[in-house]
UniProtKB/TrEMBL annotation:
This is ATP-binding cassette domain-containing protein. It holds the Pfam family ABC_tran. Belongs to the ABC transporter superfamily. SUPFAM superfamilies: P-loop containing nucleoside triphosphate hydrolases. PANTHER family: HEAVY METAL TRANSPORTER. GO terms for cellular component: ATP-binding cassette (ABC) transporter complex.
């Protein structure tokens, strides 16, 4: 299980205009959702984790070691990221080649990369499309190809950027199962996302960004119970928790399953 420690993290694209303003927190074994309105610094933060940007001040530590001297390629051996838009990630003409590309780049031999790619495609439900052109698939399936390409790399940390985009109910349920499986395997799973119901269903911890700072960091239930702080961060509670407030229930529930089991 990997840990990521963020110490006094600052970042500016332009002088005098800070995007991140001194963040201090640790990402541990819990599946973690980073939430906040557009412009809160979420995407900038994960780019710093991936080494695509460098902090203007402060450091990020992976398993106790600073990442500041690691190249993007070296970090890719440890941290995989599924992009929000799969069209920004996919560039091969065959699904299997696309999913094998990442493993090959981090040093897997061809046989192992092929095995990992096929396992990942089975997990996302695309085993029947290994020879397809990704761009002959719809957006929802291209997103699953992008997810498979990162799963196949078998990194210790996996970041999902808006994993539910273009997914129907069945697609969302599949991605929930994938995230739970990764967590059970000891992977560190992080998402940046606007879908609060999805967070409530699958993530153990939520970290709220607002104005370049961390304003809440706790279990998902405790974070979503803070209605007024969420409102100040321009976020809404999950639907079931809103219902709990409207019904005047003393105990607040995260999702339908919790509500049905415990409300009455």
């Amino acid at each position: 299980m990997s840990t990521i420690e963020i110490k006094n993290l600052h970042f500016s694209y332009h002088s005098g205009e800070e995007i991140l303003k001194g963040m201090d927190f640790m990402i541990d074994q819990r599946s973690t959702a980073i939430i906040g309105q557009n412009g809160a610094g979420k995407t900038t933060f994960v780019k710093l984790l991936k080494g695509l940007l460098k902090p203007t001040q402060g450091e990020i530590f992976l398993n106790g070691k600073t990442i500041k001297d690691l190249t993007v390629a070296k970090l890719a051996e440890h941290i995989g990221m599924v992009f929000q838009n799969p069209n920004d990630q996919i560039f091969k003409n065959v699904v299997l080649d696309e999913v094998m590309f990442g493993p090959l780049q981090i040093g897997m031999n061809k046989d192992k990369a092929n095995e990992k790619a096929k396992q990942a495609l089975e997990l996302v439900g695309l085993s029947d499309h290994i020879n397809a052109n990704p761009y002959d698939l719809g957006l929802s399936r291209r997103k699953l190809v992008a997810i498979a390409s990162i799963l196949a790399m078998d990194t210790e940390v996996i970041i999902f950027d808006e994993p539910t985009i273009a997914q129907d109910y069945a697609g969302k349920e599949r991605i929930k199962d994938i995230i739970r499986k990764l967590r059970d395997e000891g992977k560190t799973v992080i998402t940046i996302i606007h879908d609060m119901n999805f967070v409530a269903d699958v993530f153990e911890r939520a970290v709220v960004f607002a104005g370049g700072r961390v304003v809440l960091d706790d279990t998902t239930k405790n974070v979503f119970s803070q209605k007024e702080i969420l409102k100040e961060a321009y976020l809404e509670q999950p639907d079931v928790m809103k219902l709990c407030h409207e019904l005047g229930l003393n105990e607040k529930f995260l999702n339908v399953d919790e509500f049905v089991r415990n409300a009455y």
